[in-house]
Amino acid sequence: MSLWNRESGWRANALNPSSGAYGIPQALPGSKMATAGADWRTNGNTQINWGLAYISARYGSPCGAWAHSQATGWY
Asked: Origin, by domain of life (predicted)?
């Protein structure tokens, strides 16, 4: 997904030094991902599962999240 290529390069330990967003989906705060599993800091699968659920709930689909990101610079 292009969104996460840009956000984190698909790195589970990606940390945005400005905002503190963390992980593959760049959750802010990263601890939000604890709802998907206790291993949220290191497990890319846990982060992806959380990120897809977030995108579905907020934007309806990855395409919706990408469109929002393209328009605003964030998702």
From this structure: Bacteria
Length of the chain: 75
Residues contacting 26, CB < 8 A, separation 6+:
7, 8, 14, 16
Cα–Cα distance measured from residue 18 to residue 8, given in angstroms and rounded to the nearest whole number: 14
- Per residue of the chain (75 residues), what is the pLDDT tens digit? 799 999 999 999 999 999 999 999 999 999 999 999 999 999 999 999 999 999 999 999 999 999 999 999 999
